Amino acid sequence: MRHLRLVKPTEEFNMSVKIAFATSDRRAVNQHFGATEAFAIYELGKCEARMVEIAEFIETVMDGHEGKLAAKVDLLGDCAAVYCNAVGASAIQQLLAKSIQPMRVDEGTLIDELLVGLQKNLVNDPPVWLTKHLKKQSKAGSFAEEVEWQE
Fold it and tell me: Domains along the chain?
């Protein structure tokens, strides 16, 4: 696996949620979750979206080995959702257990169009899975702010 990550922190851009896309060309969702060649991971805020990670996989053949799924699910651990063309039952269970919403879209759906739609939803009427993720994030942030650590 090859994993590229944005070096500059994005906190200063007021980003709020990470979304992954199963893609071979970084433009469109065109891969099955279990056999994806790569994930493009974006951070999404109310006014901006930016790519922050690319993870490419060497072996993408679907051969029934659950270990490959677990590695992909773990890689997406801080994402709210993953968009793909198809996803198997085992992968769905593993994703939901990590609070990652699997989203199936038609092959060739453009990532930019999905991001624009997600931004509108983020501001106006977020879907249930996104609302849950944002609440979970805010609770985690408030805990860190309320607790004073002593050594």
Answer: 2-146 (3.30.420.130)
